[in-house]
Design a protein that fits this description.
The complex is a heterodimer. Chain A has three helices and seven strands. Chain A is an alpha+beta fold. Chain A has a single domain (about 1-155), classed as PH-domain like (Roll), CATH 2.30.29. Chain A has a four-stranded antiparallel beta sheet with strand order 1-2-3-4. The relative contact order of chain A is 0.14. Chain A has helices at about 10-35, 45-70, 140-155; strands spanning about 5, 75, 80-85, 90-95, 100-105, 115-125, 130-140. Chain B is of the alpha+beta class. Among the domains of chain B are: about 5-165, PH-domain like, CATH 2.30.29; about 355-405. Chain B has helices at about 15-25, 35-40, 45-70, 135-150, 160, 180-190, 190-205, 210-220, 230-255, 295-300, 315-320, 330-340, 360-380, 385-405, 445-450, 470-485, and strands at about 5-10, 70-75, 80-85, 90-95, 100-105, 115-120, 130-135, 175, 260, 265-270, 275-280, 285-290, 300-305, 325-330, 410-415, 415-420, 425-430, 440-445, 450-460, 460-470. A seven-stranded antiparallel beta sheet of chain B has the order 7-6-5-11-10-9-8, covered by helices on one side. Classes of the chains: A alpha+beta, B alpha+beta. At the A-B interface, strand 4 of A face strand 18 and helix 16 of B. Strand 4 (about 90-95) of chain A pairs antiparallel with strand 18 (about 440-445) of chain B.
Chain lengths: ~160, ~500
Amino acid sequence: MPVEWTPVERSYKTYLQLVVLIDMAVLAAIALGLYLFSPSTDWLPAPHWLGVPWAAMTLFFGLFWSSRRYQFTAYARTTEAMWLRRGALWRLTRAVPLNRIQHVEVRQGLLERPFGLAHLTLYTAGSGGADLSIPGLLVTDAEAMKAALISTIAVEPTDESTYD
Amino acid sequence: MTELAWQRTPLLTIGFFIAKEIRNLIKNITNFIPLLAVVFVTDSTWLPYAVGGGYLVFILIGAVLNHRFFLYALTDDAVHLRTGVFSKKSLTLKFERIQQAELDQTWYFRPFGLTILRVDSAGSAGKEVEIPGLSIAVAQRLRQQMLAESQPQAQSQPSHAAQPSDTDANPDFIRHFGLSELIRAGIVDNKLFVLLAVLIYPVSQTDMLDERLVPWLEANVQFIDQSMWLNIGLAMAVLSLLFVLAIAVTVIHFYNLTLTINQQRYQTRAGLFSIRTTSFRYHKLQRVRIRQNLRARFLKRFNLRVSQLQPSVNAQQQQSGSFMLPVLKLEDLNTVSDWLHLPDRQQLSWQRISPIALLQPSFWVALTAPAIAILSYLKWESSLLALLLGAGIWLALQLYVIARWQRYGFTQTGGWLGVKRGVFGHKEHWYPMYKAQQIDCYQSPWLRLLGYADIIIYTAAGAEVIKYQPYALAMALQNNWLASVASNRARWM
């Protein structure tokens, strides 16, 4: 049975680019601090040896990586499971059966708020961490999906009499 | 609300609280590293004693206080606990929610006929409770009551609850392990190297060996540097003594090991000084591990361990308490796998993964050969030696890679997923397929280029990776397995 994938919001790409910019800016700030304030700069390479790779990485992540990641990220809900695929170069397709979900959470990070984005996180037993986290959803969509999932889980029949 | 009859544990249990304090101290030892550093660095003669004395007083006061403030109350359907010196904690454990209840007869309680009741509820962290100092009869009655409540229809006979015996009168299956088997278990699971590390570490930290032991030996034992063979013999003797000691540790731990199976409850009971029971109910089984290391292969024995759902927080600590049979003959293994409803071991068809899986490790191994050759040339300046060494190590590693691939296999039979691996030893993991928690299909750029994918199955007892499946097949497997999990309504924990 083919899975019908739903893409995430367009603004997820902008959000990814913003995250890349902030991360690269932090790296640049550290390097700048070193060049400006360290007592001796002899041991440091000439600035362009760091600056050029930095610019290349920023372009790579800001243009190529974030758009690839946005393109590939999608989710699907079938009668059996919740699906998520994510990644840009290393790709993961993950499925969590609905009857193994322990709890569901909607989270919104600081940087997601300006875009009105949130992510929906499903937890299963035994792994400790978050298991399936769908990024780039509108807050209202995420809340609606959470409500739908919870009501599905709640009415799930379990066969209490089976002991093996 | 009815008034609860709060009880304090007997004064004797202070030993338990002291042990617990010490365990906590050891667990949080990293917090004390600055203090320990001070002790080691300082010149003052009294400071180490002051610190040591301080700890002792701290542990004693902590134990006394914790004992004073540990209150429990028993009702017909629940255990209530009130603990904590400064921050109070009150906890109610309903019998019907209790997953597991075990009795630990530790050596310091056994002479007084007391025991520790260890209760675990719902598999979530921090819900594990130990009540020390119950009399054996009370603890056993309580345990029966708890297990009966949590197992509503399977054990409805009230006569069971009243029966004071720990293992019910006539279990479905019972098996004792004799001393000779346990000695074999000691050889198989030898803690010699752990013991060595524990002994060597403090010796290497202080200068005792150089300053005291060696001069003392030289002064008192004349023959020591007369013969090299004598030295080697001495070292061998010490090692074999340690080997025997390590076997003794295993034998003490598993002394009088008894396996009983009764109404879907599997239980082991063992110990010379402290008697420990561990048990699980069949529907809670998450993984079976069958292992045979090199020594076990020579002795023709197997080791079997059953994992249940463990909160990841105390997974490490729980390892020691998990359900384990340390030594099984082949026919025992077949019997036990039968009881665990594992597929028949004679009729397994293991599937190998694609030989493409050899490419990547072979590539890395191929890189090591020139590296080793260059390094050894730089060191000894002999091109023949360098060539031989490089080629020899490359060959050994490459053979290992092939053997590992050749001995790897997975199979899917009767609702179980089995994976076997191991070059020198042998290891099998068995998972009930319908208990899978999530299934991944993973592709690195390299795998995408080849058109393959890895499948990762997450279960409540850990993840298993099956590498290098053709992409279309991987997707199909993911879909099929998912459907079988989703359509299964049986209890999985």
